[in-house]
Amino acid sequence: MGQFQIKRLVEMNIGGVDVSFTNSSLFMLIVIAAITLFLTFSMRGRAMVPGRMQSIAELSYEFIANMLKENVGSEGRKFFPFIFSVFMFVLFANLIGMIPYSFTVTSHIVVTFALALTVFILVTIVGILRHGVKFLTLFAPSGVPVFLMPILVPIEVISYFVRPISLSVRLFANMLAGHALLKVFGAFVVGLGWLGGWLPLTFIVGLTGLEFLVAFLQAYVFAILSCLYLNDAIHLHH
Amino acid sequence: MPQLNIADFPPQLVWLAISFVILYIMMAKVAVPRISEVLESRQDRIARDLDEAKRLSEESDKAKAEYEAALEEARSKAHGMVTELKSELAKEQAASQADLEAKLAEKAKAAEASIASAKEAALANVRSIAGDAAKQQ
After folding, report:
1. What is the rounded distance in angstroms from the CA atom of residue A195 to the CA atom of residue B118?
2. Taking CB atoms and an 8 Å cutoff, what residues of chain A touch B30?
3. pTM for the full model?
4. CB A36 to CB B23 under 8 A?
5. Which residue of A26, A62, A84, A117 to mutate against B (max B Cβ within 10 Å)?
6. In whole angstroms, what is the distance from residue A9 CA to residue B15 CA?
7. Which of A43, A82, A95, A165 has the fewest beta carbons under 10 Å from its own?
8. pLDDT tens across A110-143, in order?
9. Any CB–CB contact under 8 A between A111 and chain B?
């Protein structure tokens, strides 16, 4: 589990809070630098007919723009920079974590939970600002017999507040399990040596491909669930 | 598991907040406007080109219709000229035929007349010769 170890590169302490610059911090900065450089550098030509890099940048933009349009509608437009940032952050953190000897920012539950909680709080504030007290009807679906309400309302409330946990655990567990599995099979390769190491090695090659898919898929799932939560808060329909 | 070490939570949270805020600002102020600007200008360009293409196609349709109308007119004019010419020729031919017939009829009449007078003269001669012959005997 050495790959998940937090190492303090620069010890810092402000007002009793440990704000040390760790390997995790380093990779967070690498992630945001990579995103910013990629998006600004690929778009620097502002070409009418896009090249390869510009196409990728435009595709990622349109991917999230369409996701918002389909799941939230036109009211979702002003949340585009936020959802786009979340998607790009998770995607690049996952992908950069695939580089050997790097650190996967999203393999730490505290990071994914903080991201999920940010989404959750934002969505809740949006819902309350838009609908006020009516926002609470989100927990009491219309058209349900009154005698079912005592059962249904607690279920709805719990499922609402479980959202940040499910959102963060899904991402964290996927990244953790993938990396741990690669590590385990890597240990098999070394353990079985020249004679028996080939089978786990082939497995690692396949698993690495799968992990790239998971890296993208989890970023997609994180973004689309954020969109769905946003839609619930804006439209309240059930 | 290093993920459960609570002492590691504060530095991660602080740096996550710092980097995510920077990322959000970079996306909202730089990257997103830049990409949307390019996409919009492309959209405009495509719309403009489509309009231009539509205009040109309408123009070419109009030119084609004009050309066909002109062709039709020329064709009908030529047809009219041909029929006119034909009828004129027929008239002329009929006139010259009638003229010829009249001339021929006149000539035939004159010839008949001259034949008749020649016959008369010959008969007269015959009579006078016969009278002379009778006198001499």
Report:
1. 149
2. 36, 39-40
3. 0.78
4. yes
5. A84
6. 13
7. A165
8. 999 999 999 999 999 999 999 888 888 888 877 8
9. yes
Q: Do A131 and A236 contact (CB within 8 A), yes or no?
A: yes
Percent of chain A topping pLDDT 70: 99
CB contact under 8 A, A108 and B19: no
Supply the Cα-derived Rg of chain B in whole angstroms: 57
Tokens of A87: 């998607």
Spell out which residues of chain B touch residue A89, defining contact as CB-CB under 8 Å: 20, 23
3-state SS, chain B, equals CHHHCHHHHHHHHHHHHHHHHHHHHHHHHHHHHHHHHHHHHHHHHHHHHHHHHHHHHHHHHHHHHHHHHHHHHHHHHHHHHHHHHHHHHHHHHHHHHHHHHHHHHHHHHHHHHHHHHHHHHHHHHHHHHHHHHHHHC
Number of Cβ pairs < 8 A linking chain A and chain B: 131
Q: Looking at the complex, does the CB of residue A144 fall below 8 Å from at least one CB of chain B?
A: no
Q: pLDDT (tens digit, 0 to 9) for every residue of chain B, 137 residues total?
A: 888 888 888 999 999 999 999 999 999 999 889 999 899 999 999 999 999 999 999 999 999 999 999 999 999 999 999 999 999 999 999 999 999 999 999 999 999 999 999 999 999 999 888 888 888 87
Distance from CA of A35 to the nearest CA of B (A): 8
A6-17 residue pLDDT tens: 888 888 888 888
Residue in B with minimal Cα distance to A22: B11
Interchain proximity B34–A22, CB inside 8 Å: no
